[in-house]
Every structure is written in C-alpha cells, then in structure tokens.
Description:
The chain is an alpha+beta fold. The chain has a single domain (about 5-265), classed as Clavaminate synthase-like (Double-stranded beta-helix, 4-Layer Sandwich), CATH 3.60.130.10. The protein is built from six helices and 17 strands.
Amino acid sequence: MTYHHIKVNALSPAVGAEISGVDLTRPLEPAVLAEIRQAFLAHGVVFFHDQPMSFEDQRRLAEYFGELHIHVGGKGTASKTLEGYPEVRKQHFDRNSKRVSGEVWHTDQSCSKVPPMASILHQHLVPPDGGGDTLFAGMYAAYEALSDKMKAYLEGLTATHDGALIFDKGGEDEYPVASHPIVTVHPETGRRVLFVNRGQTAYINEVSRAESRAILAYLFDHIEQPEWQMRFHWRNHSVAFWDNRCTQHRAIWDYWPNVRSGYRMQIKGVEAPRAPQA
C-alpha cells in the first residue's frame, strides 16, 4: 500500500503496524485520517509513539471513527471509570494491584450484545525497566489457517460469550451475556474472522457441552499460536488503536511492583454479520 501523508512500518505479517509522521494532539486533516484508517484496516492494530494526549485529544481521535462506546459490565473489573468521563476506563496498576485487566486472550467486551468496534489505549506511564507488553493476534490469519473441513464445520455455529468468565472474581456483580457467530465477516474488509476467545466464550450453542468443550479448546489453542501474533513494547505516551472485529490481545503482567498507567476509550460497533454459507 502507498501512503503519502504518514509512515507505516508493519510489525509482523499477520497483525500490527507502527505509524509515524502524525501528531494526535492536533486535529487531523482528512487525507491523514484516510491513511490512518487504511493502515488500521490493513493491519488490525496500529501504534503511535510520543503522543502526550489529553482526554479531549483521545476522544477526538475516537470520534473520527464513530460514536463512543460505554463499557458494559459489573463493578468488579480491574479497570475503572473516570469521574466526568464515562467513556474513559482508567487502567492503573501498581504494587497494590491484585490483578490487571486483560491477562487472558480476549476481544474487548465480546460479552456485549454489540461489542465495541475498536479500542484506543494511551499509556502515559510504563515500567522503567521494560515489561508490561501487550500481545496481539490476527484473526484473519487464524481463520485462514484452519482446514477446509473445520471451516465448513464452524459455518453457521454460534457461541455464548459471558462477561463473568473474565471479570467476575467472586463478587455479586451481574455481567452481560451475548451470542455471536463463531465465524463472522468483517463489515469493512469483507474477510472472514474467527470470533471466539478464551476470556469470554463459554460454549457453542448448537452442539453438546462435551463437543463444545473439545472444539473450543482446539480453537483457543489454535488462535493463540505465535504464527499470527506480535508483541508491542510500550513507551511513555504510546497509543495503540486496535480493531476488535479481527484481533485479540493479552496484557502481560510482568512488571510488579512497578507502575503501568493509561486510559482506554472505545468506539461503538455494529452487530457483526454471520458469514454466508460457503
């Protein structure tokens, strides 16, 4: 792909690219925004460094791509809302933290009836000696690597996603539950995607629970293979902007007792279309 207004450096064949030559603390020109969208769709997640964004800057970037998504779920999540900014989730972890957000492979809020289209995370403070990386995996590549017989088996199946699997730690909060097709079609690229994740997918609806456990165990292991992954090393004021419709991610908590602190906003999605029968 050709870019005239930004620089794009792919980080792996399956997922991820760094973008430079753009200042996210200022309004974006239409031509720059169009190329960021192009890179976002091509790579699933794009990263920016040295972007000391305010909440207003972060909101402006998100709203270029759609309406803001408000986090759904109980109060027991590791990330917290920020007073006066209901669309912001504070992700601050230090020596007093008992756990961190996203320690298991997941797609953000897949337990929601309509999961967010994308997430934007600004890390303003990262551990001084490394650590705190985030792994990303590309679900186009994961789907395409399945055998033809497995692809045919999965067509038309749906799975139930339960927020309590990833969020509930013994409290009494209620978490959303939703069903989604196992194979979806990305609404902008038209490519097929695997849409199950270890963090929130509970069972396949159309088969026995025993069969569901076996198939999901295979799919989770398949999704988490390193061939379609990349590992992002954060810096202070790095930004990650990922497409929840075609990627998964996992946060690495290897930095205790150091601090990792940032803020996440999300963009509303639309219900993912079921993949047409092949």
